[in-house]
Design a protein that fits this description.
Length: 338
């Protein structure tokens, strides 16, 4: 309860409530558009993570994304999740699904922990091209197996990135797969940026008209199945149509926690060191670099998990309240993300 109060306070003060924690840079996939797996990794041990979790609790963080690299490569990933859970910070494990198994999933289901599995295509050739490895069959078998865990304390989802290789039939198939096994389904647009997380790929790049029918489909279904996603998808469409994006949520709703324990405004500026002590003083200095961040937003605006979603939902709060009965029903079906 006290942590929820801290989170609300941070929202009112315009301070971050979400930490994007790269628990490792190691990965068992080789996505050609990603550079993270190519970089050196100096991960914290569990004792160091305990100290960071205590610091995040005190600051008022309520949510943490455990990502990588591939977080399930770490054998202590459940222990890491527990470190945040016991401090009232809800974790989401973001995984490619290769290492999922019944033992792991059964333990996740017992915890107030979200699980997000990334699959961009059910076409083996496209999957291999996008992920750099031929592991689609293995991931699908894992999803089928872990779907037996119906009683989950968190939200379980399958997420897809819409790219120039995506087709409506493929997205429909992924949506059907998610519903068949009791997972929420969500999509995000392909992004290309200047940092380590993504780069422009001619095959993946597209214009809105290329994917309009896909977004028509996901928006239509999200209104019935995932109202919060429906709210965000509206902004996806504006983004894809080239509408100028407002400033992202970095340093207002979220920040990056690197695998070595250092903090930064976002994944695009890992070299800028953030200290939570004296946060507002730091943010004042951060704003002096507004031309740097403004150019980032103008030239390579992104829809990272940490970039805009929280702000979109907060700004849509009146509509969210109006549709709360529908949202509650959806959370009963797929698990409470919050």
């Amino acid at each position: 309860m006290f942590q929820k109060i801290r989170v609300v306070k941070n929202i009112l003060l315009g301070r971050p409530i979400l930490a994007i924690f790269d628990v490792t840079k190691l990965c068992n996939q080789r996505c050609p558009m990603c550079n993270i797996w190519k970089t050196e990794c100096d991960s914290m041990n569990i004792g160091e993570i305990e100290k960071k979790a205590a610091e995040l609790k005190k600051f008022g963080v309520g949510y943490v994304f455990l990502q990588g690299g591939e977080p399930t490569i770490r054998k202590d990933i459940l222990q890491i999740a527990d470190t945040f859970i016991k401090r009232g910070i809800k974790p989401t494990i973001i995984t490619n699904g290769i290492l999922l198994n019944d033992d792991f999933a059964g333990e996740v289901a017992k915890r107030k922990c979200n699980l997000a599995i990334s699959i961009d295509s059910l076409n083996p050739e496209i999957y291999k091209k996008m992920r750099g490895v031929d592991t689609l069959d293995r991931v699908l078998k894992n999803i089928m197996s872990i779907s037996k865990f119906k009683k989950r304390k968190g939200n379980w989802s399958i997420t897809s990135t819409i790219t120039g290789l995506s087709t409506l039939d493929d997205i429909k198939a992924l949506h059907d797969l998610s519903r068949k096994y009791g997972f929420m389904y969500a999509v995000r647009p392909y992004i290309f940026v200047n940092g380590v997380a993504g780069k422009k790929d001619a095959e993946l790049f597209y214009k809105y008209d290329d994917v309009a029918e896909i977004y028509d489909y996901v928006i239509s279904n999200a209104e019935k199945e995932n109202f919060l996603a429906w709210t965000v998808y509206k902004k996806h469409v504006e983004y894809l149509k080239g509408k100028p994006m407002p400033a992202c949520d970095a340093m207002k709703r979220s920040f990056l926690l690197k695998e070595n324990g250092q903090m930064a405004p976002c994944i695009e500026f890992p070299g800028i060191v953030l200290k939570l002590g004296g946060f507002f003083k730091f943010r004042k200095q951060y704003r002096r670099n507004r031309l740097l961040f403004k150019n980032c937003n103008l030239n390579t605006p992104c829809f990272y998990n940490d970039a805009r979603e929280i702000g979109i939902l907060i700004k849509s709060f009146p509509r969210v309240i109006m549709y709360m009965p529908k949202i509650v029903k959806q959370m009963v079906t797929y698990g409470n993300f919050f």
